[in-house]
Specification:
- The chain has 114 residues and is mostly beta strands.
- Helix content is 0%, strand content 48%.
- It has a 6-stranded mixed beta sheet, with no helix packed on it. A 4-stranded antiparallel beta sheet has the order 1-3-8-7, with no helix packed on it.
- The protein is globular and about 40 Å long.
Length: 114
């Protein structure tokens, strides 16, 4: 069945970096655009970044432009999110998602605090 497994979250200091990874299985990954979302406590889930199936098109939320980079490896069926210059407001659970489908991983917690 469709499965998404996120990893790489943790605690980072403001200004620091983390790299999230999502391992996908059960579908044709190389044909699927992929998203990273996040949900902070008390807030709605929001789209952070999207990447096209081939990786050539990438879109970002205004709040993360210039700091986060989404990438994918179709041979490994993984999609990553490199997060730099982290801010306390980046604290959230991060989820990967298959574009257009209500399929989610378990999420990975990112906490940015000094």
């Amino acid at each position: 069945q469709l499965q998404l497994v996120e990893s790489g979250g943790g605690l980072a200091q403001p200004g620091g970096s983390l790299r999230l990874s999502c391992a996908a299985s059960g579908f044709t990954f190389s044909r699927s655009p992929m998203n990273w979302y996040r949900q902070a406590p008390g807030k709605e889930r929001e789209l952070v970044a999207r990447i096209s199936s081939g990786g050539g098109l990438r879109n970002y939320a205004d709040s993360v432009k210039g700091r986060f980079t989404i990438s994918r490896d179709n041979a490994k069926a993984t999609v990553d999110l490199q997060m730099n210059i982290l801010k306390p407001e980046d604290t959230a659970i991060y989820y990967c998602n298959i574009y257009g489908l209500d399929v989610w991983g378990q999420g990975t917690q990112v906490t940015v605090s000094s």
